Amino acid sequence: MLPPITGLHHVTAMCGDPQRNVDFYAGVLGLRLVKRTVNFDDPSTYHLYYGDALGAPGTLLTFFAWPGAQRGRRGTGQVAVTALRIPASSVSFWLDRLHTHQVVGVDVGKRDAATVISLADPDGMRLELVGTPEADDAKKDEAVWRGGPVTLEHAIRALHGVTAELAATPKTVALLTEVMGLKPADAEVGRKQRFRTVSSGGEKPNQFIELVAAPDDRPGQVSVGFVHHIAWRAQDAATQAAWREKLLSLGHAVSPVIDRTYFHAIYFREPGGVLFEIATDPPGFTADGETLETLGSHLQLPPQYEGRRAALEAGLPPIHLPSDHTSPQASPAE
Ligand code: ZN
Questions:
Q1: Full DSSP string of 31-61
Q2: Which residue in 20, 25, 92, 204 has the most C-beta neighbors within 10 A?
Q3: What is the distance of C-alpha 3 from the center of its chain?
Q4: What is the CATH number of domain 8-315?
Q5: What is the DSSP letter of 310?
Q6: Separation of 49 CA from ligand 1 center, angstroms?
Q7: Whole-angstrom distance between the N-terminal and C-terminal Cα of the chain?
Q8: Residue 317 C-alpha to ligand 1 middle, in angstroms?
């Protein structure tokens, strides 16, 4: 019997201009750029990874940069909203910060005990900052990113979850609950259903996937401003292999295991159309020789592209980290 899926590993989306993406996620949201590399399937474009100081699974939001590409279109069979977790006590800090940085689409509401700030990134990707009491727990010191513009007290803690819009939900519900071991998160059954991961030992806050049934909507189109896929965690390669066998036995078309340097990945499309990945926790973001201190500082290439480094570097637009350390939110008076 396979253990249940314990959480999200990462969410990967598509962005336009890579510098604008860095300015927003590292500069405004204060995440750490934990890896600058290329799209392993298209090495002429960037793949940028953001997370906590360690690049820990469950904190990772990543982007394929396609400058000049057309924006995607909202619809069924895709993730509509990506939610990040903040301390409940930090909601007013974030509302001020988003306002100061003229972030668009900012709205605030309630969901159960949580306060939810809705916003859009510079490519129109829909995000939420969810203020929950679970996030008030102090994060381990080593996981806190101290090089960014947001102080420890208010820093984004982790991925909170995703909302997917589907033409029909029953088969996806069956996959999540009967195969992957997620639990219904609330009693309400209606247009929206929410499911939570089951953490091992209960030491980690749950993550969520919300399904919205939208039978009358047309299919969405995944491109700039939209999520490309979501990845769930497997603790090791053996667990991932067991998941692969299980999913194949149930008739899912699962990819072979693919080496992504920082984790190993398998991919399959869930019945509602969203691309799912199962990614291993190891080996993590120091696997390429970068240290925890230098994560994200230089372009890292997988071995198969190292021989083409000069040409690839010349073709990629230069990017730099914002030096936003003097923003009003980071001043001693705050
Ligand atoms: Zn992925």
A1: -EEEEEEEETTEEEEEEEEEESTT--TTSEE
A2: 25
A3: 23
A4: 3.10.180.10
A5: H
A6: 10
A7: 51
A8: 23
Tell me the average pLDDT across 25-45. 97
Paired tokens of 260: 């992504």
Cα separation, 45 vs 47, in Å, equals 7
Predicted confidence band of residue 331 (pLDDT cuts 50, 70, 90)? very low
Tell me the three state secondary structure of residue 90. Answer: helix
Match 């001693």 to its residue by tokens: 332
> How far, in Å, is the centroid of ligand 1 from the Cα of 73?
21
- What mean pLDDT is predicted for residues 305-314? 97
- The pLDDT tens digits for 52-100 are 999 999 999 999 999 999 999 999 999 999 999 999 999 999 999 999 9
Query: Mind listing the pLDDT tens digit for each residue in 253-300?
Result: 999 999 999 999 999 999 999 999 999 999 999 999 999 999 999 999
Q: Which residues surround ligand 1, an ion (CB under 5 A)?
A: 12, 231, 277
- The beta-strand segments (E) located in the chain are 8-15, 32-39, 42-51, 60-65, 78-87, 107-111, 114-120, 126-132, 158-166, 183-184, 192-196, 208-213, 227-234, 258-259, 263-269, 275-283, 299-300
Sequence-ordered alpha helix ranges (H) in 189-292: 237-249
pTM, rounded to two decimals: 0.94
Measured CA to CA, the distance from residue 29 to residue 121 in angstroms comes to 10
Beta strands in 133-223 (DSSP E): 158-166, 183-184, 192-196, 208-213
Quote the tokens at residue 10: 């990462």
**Under 8 Å CB-to-CB from 10, ≥6 apart: which residues?**
49, 51, 57, 60, 61, 62, 159, 230, 231, 279
Given the structure tokens 């398998």, which residue do they identify?
266
3-state secondary structure of 184: strand
